[in-house]
Design brief:
The protein has 415 residues and is an alpha/beta fold. The chain has eleven helices and 13 strands. 33% of the residues lie in helices and 13% in strands. The longest helix has 31 residues. The protein starts with 36 loop residues before the first helix and ends with a helix. It binds pyridoxal-5'-phosphate.
Length: 415
């Protein structure tokens, strides 16, 4: 095993690694989700009155509500999206020699569960307009060993799914949608996570809604897969009717569940989180509407600033703007994205972010030896990309301050 020397001391006061948020005029307040009274009350109610703390009526209700909200056929509440992705990777039956195509532009949790199966991760490039993977950038990486395409509706923007599904049919591949940043986003009036074979959602503290910091949901299209998920989620134990003749004999896994050769685990989520999740679903559209309003205001406010461009959103797509990413085009000014960010951060005290950096996506420490990533569009894009802070609690004044500061920063760069 390679021993990695840690140059930075491990900071115990910032276990999430998100850094300080104090001292900013506009911080990135992710993980400071504000619950309303009804949401707080339902958690307390479960603590006081429930007859099960896990896998009870609130989980069933949350799953049912999620199916109703998204239109998914089957939904399974889990402890986080990484494990929803892990369940998808298990269900896909991947093994050594198989290849999985994964966007090079994403959060590492999209890839880790798939790499863990022994399959080879092959990185797909972004389309320069949408700044997401497309059928074209996926097809460039297809080989006879490809079994799964993973698409990520990154930063709340839906991937163009119809061509991806056609491609999957052509090459007989399964499609996994990583919807961690896009709950409620739509593709041609269909919710993301209901188009591919599997959809994976996150309710982590930094996402659009959060079930007390952690949580996730797996949506499944086909009953053939869905029928074994509850067993895979709970160490092979699945609810079934059993006559208890004299005393209870807890099962060493459900004896007739068909998961030969597959290792189940525990991916369960508690009842209080599920009860809260059902409440949050009722508010999700309102939260998303605010995020969309914020992003649209910035896009409009900067439409006459040629140095800043935003991703193209094609007709029929409804993004939910988990965050708004922009591209800084400073070549005429002979200035870089970092020059722009320096002013925004240090002079205007806006906590700007450059998302999802990886020196070489083909060679993260947990996935060695996969060869060159070969993603020229992403290479050309990443160093010019940036994002504004985003929150459903921002006021119009906050947004206008960011617009105004951007214009002032560019004027300063022109001096
Ligand atoms: C957050 C995130 C995940 C992982 O979600 P968890 O619930 O934290 O496990 C996966 N993919 C993407 C794109 C994410 O942003």
């Amino acid at each position: 095993m390679k021993v990695v020397h840690m140059e930075n001391e491990i900071k115990t006061d910032d276990a999430s690694g998100r850094g300080v948020v104090e001292g900013y005029k506009i911080a990135f307040p992710a993980m400071l989700f504000k619950y309303n009274q009804e949401e707080i009350d339902v958690v307390v109610d479960v603590m006081r009155n429930t007859n099960a703390m896990t896998q009870g009526k609130y989980m069933r209700q949350f799953e049912e509500d999620f199916c109703t909200y998204t239109g998914a056929k089957h939904s399974f509440a889990v402890d986080n999206a990484t494990n929803a992705l892990r369940l998808a990777s298990i269900l896909a039956g991947l093994e050594q020699g198989n290849e999985v195509i994964i966007p090079a532009y994403t959060f590492c949790a999209t890839a880790i569960p798939f790499g863990e199966t022994g399959a080879k991760i092959v990185w797909a490039d972004i389309d320069p307009e949408s700044r997401l993977v497309s059928a074209k950038t996926i097809e460039e990486k297809v080989t006879k060993n490809t079994k799964v395409f993973v698409v990520v509706h990154l930063l709340g923007m839906p991937v163009d799914m119809d061509p991806v599904m056609e491609l999957a049919k052509k090459y007989k591949c399964l499609v996994v949608e990583d919807c961690a940043q896009a709950p409620g986003a739509e593709y041609k009036s269909r919710k993301v996570g209901t188009i591919g074979d599997f959809g994976c959602f996150s309710f982590h503290g930094a996402k659009n809604i959060t079930t007390l910091g952690e949580g996730g949901m797996l949506t499944v299209k086909s009953y053939e897969y869905a029928k074994i998920v509850s067993g895979l989620r709970h160490n092979g134990c699945r609810a079934y009717n059993e006559e208890r003749k004299r005393y209870w004999v807890p099962a060493m896994s459900d004896v007739d569940i068909d998961i030969d050769g597959v290792w189940p685990s525990n991916f369960c989520i508690g009842e209080a989180q599920c009860a809260l999740g059902s409440k949050l679903l009722k508010r999700l559209d309102k939260i998303n509407a605010k995020l969309i309003k914020n992003a649209t205001r910035i896009r409009r406010g900067l439409s006459d600033v040629p140095e800043i461009t935003f991703p193209e959103i094609k007709k029929g797509l409804k993004p939910v703007y988990h965050v708004l990413v922009g591209k800084f085009n400073g070549s005429k000014l002979e200035k870089t994205r970092d020059d722009f960010m320096d002013i925004m951060v240090n002079k205007f005290r806006i906590r700007m972010i450059a998302w999802l950096r990886r020196d070489d996506p083909a060679d993260p420490p947990w996935a060695p030896g996969f060869g060159e990533a070969n993603c020229p569009n992403l290479e050309a894009y990443w160093d010019s990309s940036f994002s504004y802070p985003q929150s459903s609690d921002f006021t119009d004044e906050d947004i206008d301050y960011m617009i105004d500061s951007t214009k002032k920063a560019i004027a300063l760069l022109k001096l």
